[in-house]
Structure formats: C-alpha cells, structure tokens
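Hey, quick one: can you model this chain's 3D structure?
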Amino acid sequence: MKKEIDKDGRMVYKFSHSVARGGYLYAHKCREENTITNKDGLRYLLQTIAKKYELIDVTIKVYDKIFFLFFQMKLSLAPQEIIDAVQEKITSFSEWDEDYVITGVDELQEKYLRKDLEKWGMDYDKE
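Sure thing. Here's the predicted structure for all 127 residues.
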C-alpha cells in the first residue's frame, strides 16, 4: 500500500488492486449513567486491535463517556470484523449503549479530524 496526497491536499491510499480516500469512524458511547472507567486501558486495547488488524492511519480519542476510533483498512477486511473485535473486548471498561456508529469519513488527517470532533462538541486536545 502506498499513500499520496492528491491535488486537493487529501490522502489517497493506493492498494495493489484499488484506490481509496478517507477512512472509517467507529464511535461508541456509554449508557447514560455510566463513564469509561479506565480511559488509558481502553486506548491501549484499541491500539492493540488496530495493530492486530493492521489498521492504517489510526487516531483514537477517548473521552469520559464516548470513544472515537478513526482508521483506514485493507480492502480485504470487512468493517464488521473491527466492530466484533472491539465490542468483544470493551465490556470491562463501561456499560455500553446498544447503539454505535460506524461510518465513512472524508479524511483522516489531524486537521480534518479536529473539525469533525468539534462538530460533535468534542475538543481534539482534551480527552
């Protein structure tokens, strides 16, 4: 896989048989009355999952009641594999809401992630 910046300043991922731009966001919040009990531990767990699945350009943000996992992945990997891996392991860090978000994002560069998090009321620098 090769990474390049296109004419618009966006990252392009060139795999052997395809090209991709942007990436994914997995976000999960605690149930209303709960908080994340060990933010550093959860961050480490998510980093471990990212390494195991060889996720690309990973950014992890863990706040009191929600976490965000931004990443790109090999096209041979299904998003459901990441969802299952995360949900199987996060139960010891809080009681989690049944609903979660997995969606595409336009860009994984920090300046764009800052804007996305600000839209959702989060401060990129204050976890």
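One thing worth noting: The chain has one domain: 22-119.
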